Amino acid sequence: MSRTHPPLWLVLIVAVVLASCSALPRTLPTSRAEPDDPSAPASSIASPGVPSATPTPDPTLWVAAENARQGTTDWQLAAVADDATLSGFADRASVVAGEPVVLRVSSTAASWTATVYRLGFYAGAGARRVWASPPVPGVRQAAPVIEPGNMVTAAAWTPSLSLDTGGWLPGSYLVTLVTSTGQGRHIPLTVRSDSFRGRLVLLSATTTYQAYNTWGGHSLYLGPQGFDDRARRVSFDRPYDRDGARIPLGYEWPVIFLAERLGLDLGYATVVDLERGADAFAGARGLVSLGHDEYWSVPMRDSAEALRDRGVNLAFLGANAVYWRVRTAPSALGPARVVEGYKDAGADPVKGATSTTLWRRSPNARPESTLVGMLYECFPADGAMVVRDPDFFLFAGTGATRGSSYPGLVGTEIDRAYPAPLAPETLRVVAHSPVACGTIGKTYSDMTYYTMPSGAGVVAVGTMNWRYGLETVPQPGTALTAASLAFATTVTENLFRAMAAGPMGLTRPATSNLAEIAPPVSTRTGTGGAVG
């Protein structure tokens, strides 16, 4: 089959997101809290250790009780190992406590250890050590296999270590591998809640993790020779590139840190868990997309929309969410271990509603704005967030007035509100921020809120830089100010408390103000592509 060169807008998106994915986690305090003592090691592959004792979750207080425990900053890597020195992956991305997790690790080092950390607040330390292994001899595993669609897989690697997750609390975890010489890599793992009733659910964007993962030479963006030999299928059965957790730590951990500090009753899951259906999330108060959540399958979106239509609040704390339509498929190691993304319905062998292309494109176009509230607009963009509606209930306590400007909160990718039928009927623009879109010219980044007859409220911040606003100090190299951080943090705190209290639209129904703003019908002001 002949290959065509990508359109300019797609080349720009590739360049921007690859750059934006290098975001680093916040700067932590220099003081080091002592971790819990690890349990005594047992045997090797069967189960080298036992998790430290954990309290039984209280329906409303368990997050606060967990974060009162001793934290540590030891989860931060002193040095990142290269692929040959140390690489590893888990056979599950999401488990319920008690389900085993098998690690497959390749290393040229004499030995390595695995330490498990639960991410959270923990008095500012950022994580708690849950479990640690004894040293495991390094074994260099076979070279990965490249399957059809340029899919890299290491599923044939021999198991190295088995984790017993019994007693682990719901949360976002890092399995941190470190060699005997101090070089390390992370493996992200979600321990999902066995029930989401009454909980605010934080969703890890695991399909997006894999879309950008270049380990073995191929991602959904690039191959060894560039765009044309990129992967059309990517597998969870391989390690992650770089430090192993560039998206979890770059985009998700700052939100988790804040949510756990508030002590709300939280639930944890991945976006792939949405494929279990809406009933699996019965009773949830809200779903939170944490920051860089670009790749969704049809079952994921169907579940999110069904939950919204049942009164479950939604929040999108980034931009460019639900942009690419993908499919999941099983691998040799389990269900939903492959992400298929041809990025072109014509090239996809599967035709119809699940063809992998932009959500805004045919066949069966479902623009992301009908869920998120806005369309993905532009990369690169950079600017200040400008308040349009200071009476918006989530701006309480910020001191914002109409026209208040918060430098650095808008970028690197942004969303924009568009008129009906692309916008929900009640869509309200609460911040309307002028920016320059690369070489295209002036456009806007919006923050929006809409409500549904079910009572659900949906908030989208419309900027990838929101996560930087949740830092403790302004990120070097950005235009962020202390006022920007205070604004973003207060708004997010208000948002989480409001979502956790129940359907926001029942007490705070939205009314559209799009007629005042008069957004264009055409998407030519941005790089996101045409609709339809």
Helicity range of the residues?
10-25%
Low-pLDDT ranges: 1-58
Morphology: globular
> Hey, roughly how much beta strand do the residues contain?
25-35%
Based on secondary structure, the structural category is: alpha/beta
Which sheet architecture does the biggest sheet show?
7 strands, mixed
Radius of gyration over all CA atoms, rounded: 22 Å
Can you describe what's shown?
The chain is an alpha/beta fold and 532 residues long. It is built from nine helices and 24 strands. Strand 18 and strand 19 form a beta hairpin. It is globular, with a radius of gyration of 22 Å. Residues 1-58 have low confidence and may be disordered.
Describe the protein's topology.
Elements: H1 8-20, H2 62-67, E1 86-90, E2 94-96, E3 100-107, E4 111-119, E5 127-132, E6 136-137, E7 145-147, E8 151-153, E9 161-164, E10 171-179, E11 184-192, E12 200-204, H3 206-212, E13 233-235, H4 246-262, E14 266-270, E15 286-289, E16 295-297, H5 298-308, E17 313-316, E18 324-331, E19 334-340, H6 369-372, E20 375-386, E21 405-416, E22 428-437, E23 441-451, E24 457-460, H7 482-501, H8 504-507, H9 514-517
Parallel strand pairs: 2-11, 12-14, 12-15, 15-17, 16-18, 17-24
Antiparallel strand pairs: 1-3, 3-9, 4-5, 4-6, 4-10, 7-8, 10-11, 13-19, 18-19, 20-21, 22-23, 23-24
